[in-house]
Amino acid sequence: MAARLIPQGWRVIGTTRDGGAADEIRNTGAEPLVWPPGDCAQALDEATHLLISVGPTAAGDPVLDRLGDQIARIAPRLKWVGYLSTTAVYGDHGGDWVDETTPPNPASKRGQWRMDAEAAWGAIPDLALHIFRLAGIYGPGRGPFAKVRSGTARRIIKPGQVFSRIHVADIAQVLAASIARPDPGAIYNLCDDDPAPPQDVIAHAAELLGMPIPPAIPFDTADLTPMARSFYGENKRVRNDRIKDALGVELIYPGYREGLAALVASS
């Protein structure tokens, strides 16, 4: 987002809870604000647009917990607020398609926490809230290549399982398009056009690297963390028509093949 907005004259402040990430934020052209102990009050008072990417916990949304009163006070003058949620709020649909009209029915705690956070943000009067439900995120430094190169990648096979994905560049362009066409109360699914079995993505990554395809491991016998196993408890294909029809978005990476090819070319 910083790379898109700063050349247009925007001032961008990026918050982080990790002091070591300040330089990474600064390298994008944004101004880092380590929070806490940094004070967000002045930055919020001067802001016209607010993007929330902080994940909730069982205790609730940490941004609202600390800054909810101030955000509620300045809500009427904020031109655009974006909340990054997750398609996990839809729960399991046995591989069927879901869209923004599908009633949320989370099957996991993290999905329930996100649904609760969406509701909490939506309860703030006069807030120009836009909710973005993200599929699995990948991009530079966040993809299957490191594990394939190190030989630790696994192709977990669960018959019929598919996941939807979204490249970070497409997330940024959808957010920018929404800022240009604000529609308070809108909900958007952010995913590409090609939901696919996870083992196919790993195999394609190996092929792009010219390396052997990792062996197949049945899901029932795979050694997975509880978090990783929970992802396989939700099986759905996510539609993205709304970002195209309402925001005029043309995906940079309409499928994982295009996205992975670009990552290899840039590495």
Please specify the SSE layout and strand pairing.
Elements: H1 2-5, E1 13-16, H2 22-27, E2 31-34, H3 41-46, E3 49-52, H4 62-74, E4 80-86, E5 97-98, H5 109-122, E6 129-134, E7 136-138, H6 145-150, E8 155-157, E9 165-167, H7 168-180, E10 187-190, H8 198-209, E11 216-218, H9 226-231, E12 237-238, H10 241-247, H11 256-266
Parallel strand pairs: 1-2, 3-4, 4-6, 5-12, 6-10, 7-9, 8-11
Helix pairs in contact: 8-11
Which features does this protein show?
11 helices; two-stranded parallel sheet; alpha/beta; 267 residues
CATH homologous superfamily (4th level) name of the domain at 39-139 and 164-194 and 237-254 = NAD(P)-binding Rossmann-like Domain
Q: How would you spell out the order of helices and strands? A: HEHEHEHEEHEEHEEHEHEHEHH
Structural class: alpha/beta
- How would the global form be characterised? globular
Strand order of the largest sheet: 3-4-6-10
Structure overview:
By secondary structure, this protein is an alpha/beta fold. It has a domain at 39-139 and 164-194 and 237-254: 3-Layer(aba) Sandwich (Rossmann fold). It is built from 11 helices and 12 strands. It has a 4-stranded parallel sheet with strand order 3-4-6-10, with helices on both faces. The chain has a two-stranded parallel sheet with strand order 1-2. The protein has a two-stranded parallel ribbon with strand order 5-12. Helix 2 links the parallel strand 1 (13-16) and strand 2. Helix 8 runs parallel beside helix 11 (256-266). The chain is globular and about 55 Å long.
